[in-house]
Amino acid sequence: MKKLIGYIICFYATVLVVACKNNASQHNESAFRLNLDQGLTSLDPAFARNRNAIWMTNQIFDGLVQIDSTLKTVPYIAKSWKVSADATTYTFNL
């Protein structure tokens, strides 16, 4: 009986050592994996039509301005901007 208990303890100790082994050296990949429920249609912000494409382009591209929680336009990349008198030309200062 003592021999059986010794084997069981040895087995569990071996399992514990193997399970706690650091596998970080085996995972040196530089890949970003993302599971999407729909196909990604485009990474061009002008053609982003579905939720996944819009989310992905927002992760990749920064805008000149953003909308805050009160729905006002606030600077993001642009420090400031001017609108021409006829409202056809916008000049952004970066």
Q: Helices, strands, pairings?
A:
Blueprint: H1 2-19, H2 51-60, E1 65-67, E2 73-75, E3 80-83, E4 90-93
Antiparallel strand pairs: 1-2, 3-4
Task: Describe the protein's architecture and organization.
The protein is of the alpha+beta class. The chain contains two helices and four strands, in the order ααββββ. The protein has helices at residues 2-19, 51-60, and strands spanning 65-67, 73-75, 80-83, 90-93. The strands form two sheets. A two-stranded antiparallel sheet has the order 1-2. It has a two-stranded antiparallel ribbon with strand order 3-4. A hairpin with a 5-residue loop joins strand 1 (65-67) and strand 2.
Distance between the termini: 79 Å
Category from helices, strands and their pairing? alpha+beta
Low-confidence stretches: none
Q: Work out the radius of gyration.
A: 28 Å
The biggest beta sheet reads: 2 strands, antiparallel
List the strand order in the largest sheet: 1-2
Q: Would you tell me the overall average pLDDT? A: 82
Q: Oligomer, anyone?
A: single chain
Helical proportion? Answer: 25-40%
What is the 3D shape?
Answer: rod-shaped
List the secondary-structure elements in sequence, H or E: HHEEEE
Q: Please, how many helices? A: 2
Number of strands: 4
The percentage of residues in β strands lies in 5-15%
